[in-house]
Design a protein that fits this description.
Shape: flat
Structural class: mainly alpha
Strand content: 5-15%
Number of helices: 9
Helix content: over 70%
Order of helices and strands: HHHHHEEHHEEHH
Distance between the termini: 36 Å
Amino acid sequence: MQRHRSVVWLSCATALVCDVALGVGLTRLVRHHLDSAALHRTVTDTTTEVMWQLQSLLHWMMGAPGGLKLNTPLTTALGTFFLYQVQLWGAFITFITPTMVTGIQLLLPMGYLGASFLFSLLGDILSLATFHVYCIYVCATKVYQLEVTWLVRLWRLFRGRRWNPEKQRVETWPYTIEQLFLGTLCFTILLFLFPTILLYYFVFVLLRLAVLAAVGSLTLLTHLINVNPTFVVVSWLAGAKSVAGSLLVTVLREDPRSMVTRVQVTTAPLRPTLRWFWCPVDPGLRAVGRSQLLEALLRGQLVWLM
C-alpha cells in the first residue's frame, strides 16, 4: 500500500510537471503570434462571423426552409424576436470587446501555471461568446415545452380524460359539449402551429449541443492533462517493481524431501495498470445517457451537461 501511494504521488507530480511545461509552451506561442491588436481583431472577427451566420440562419428559417410550409405569422414573430436578441448581444459584445481583450491579456500569463488553466479559460470564453445562443435556446425550449404541455392536456380533454394530481394518474372525466368543442378547436390550432415551433426548437437544440460538446471536450481535455499517466507508462515500459504484476513460480527440481523453485515478477498488462492508478472522473464530466438525453429533449427540458 505504501508503494502504491508513492507511485500515485509521483504520477501526480509528473502530471503537474507536464501540465506546467505544456502551459509554458502554449502561453509563449500565443503571446508570440497574438499581440493586443491581433487579439482584438480575432475576437471581433469571430464574434461578427458567428452573429452573421446566426442571422443568416434565422432569415432562412423565416422563409421556407427546405421547402417546408410553416405558419408565416408565427415564424415571422419568432424570427424577429430571436433576431432582436442576436442584435442586442452583438451590441453588447462590441461594447465589452476591449474589456474582454484586456482581461485575456491579464489572465494569459497565468498559463505558465499549466495548460489546464488555458483550456479552462478557453472554455469560459467560448461559453461567454455563445451566451446569446443559450438565451435563444432557453426561449425556444420554453415555447416548445409550453406547446407540448398544452397539446398533451388538450389531447386528454379530446379523449374525455384528465390528470388527477391527488391520485397521480389519468382518469375519465365527463366534459360538457362546450368544453369538448373549445378544447378540440384549441388542440387543432396548436397542432398546426407545432411544426413551426418544432423547427426552431430543433435547430437551437443542435446549436446548444454543439456548444456543450465543445466546452465538454475542453473540460475533458483539462481532466486528462491533470491525470496524465506518463510516469506510470514509463515505469511500465521500464519494468519497475512499483507497477509489477503477479508472481510466477516455476518448479525447477522436485524430490520427496525438497523442491527447488524459481520466482519471477511478471509485468502486469498496461490497461489494468492504468486503471489502477487512474484518478476518478469529476462527477460533472460524467456523460449523460442517450436515453436520458433523448427523453429530456422530447420533454423540452433544459440540457446542461453531455
